[in-house]
Design a protein that fits this description.
single chain, mainly alpha, two-stranded antiparallel sheet, 4 helices
Length: 125
């Protein structure tokens, strides 16, 4: 499937079957991780960190480099969201995983309660 900007909007439907398609969570997360690594790594690669540490002192310079990493990571992410989908087609999935995992603890509690009740009702020999 060719890249289409409608993929990033809500309610994107498959043209063939009409099923609702979503952008893969893994793809989105990888874009964020890569942008954070580049955003915080670029000042160190271009030796901007050394300059800031020399000018502002060790603690203030290090904090300035970290503070510079956040907006830089945001700019990198903004560029990546527009460029990367044209180079690598984003995977589409029919649904996302639910954020809540059901552990089915109530069924275990019921079985435990039944066992304890049956032990209490048994006559002692």
């Amino acid at each position: 499937m060719a890249f289409d900007r409608r993929v990033f909007r809500q309610g994107f439907l498959c043209e063939q079957c009409g099923a609702k398609l979503l952008l893969s969570e893994t793809y989105s997360r990888m874009l964020v991780v890569i942008s954070i690594v580049l955003g915080f790594g670029l000042p160190w690669v271009v030796h901007l960190a050394k300059l800031l540490i020399l000018v502002l002192g060790p603690l203030a310079g290090f904090i300035a480099v970290l503070a510079l990493g956040f907006p830089l990571a945001f700019v990198v992410l903004s560029l990546m969201v527009r460029v990367v989908p044209r180079l690598i087609s984003p995977p589409l999935v029919p649904c996302h995983n639910d954020p809540i995992t059901v552990l089915n603890l109530t069924a275990e509690e019921m079985q435990t309660m039944k066992r304890s009740e049956s032990k209490q009702t048994e006559p002692n020999l």
